[in-house]
Amino acid sequence: MAKNNDTAATVRVRLVKGLRGVQGRHRLSVKALGLNKLNDVRELKDSPQVRGLINTVYYLVRVEE
């Protein structure tokens, strides 16, 4: 099974809700995604680890594929 690196799937994640009143673990998940301020957008490699972080904070982020 050879993978093509030139067609690496990515996912765009946008922080759409503030972190005030959010659990500490969820704050850390948002930070691990590289999102700092409201409306920050990051383009990340689509992997199970990233999808897990997104699923943890599904109510704070929007996925733009």
Automatic annotation (TrEMBL):
Large ribosomal subunit protein uL30-like ferredoxin-like fold domain location: 11-61
Gene3D superfamilies the record matches: Ribosomal protein L30, ferredoxin-like fold domain
Any single Gene Ontology cellular-component annotation: ribosome
Signal peptide boundaries: none
Keywords assigned by UniProt, alphabetized: Ribonucleoprotein, Ribosomal protein
InterPro entries in UniProt: Ribo_uL30_ferredoxin-like_sf (IPR036919), Ribosomal_uL30_bac-type (IPR005996), Ribosomal_uL30_ferredoxin-like (IPR016082)
HAMAP family referenced in this protein's UniProt entry, alphabetically: Ribosomal_uL30_B
Subunit structure: Part of the 50S ribosomal subunit.
Classification via NCBIfam families: rpmD_bact
Family to which the UniProt record says this protein belongs: Belongs to the universal ribosomal protein uL30 family.
Protein name according to UniProt: Large ribosomal subunit protein uL30
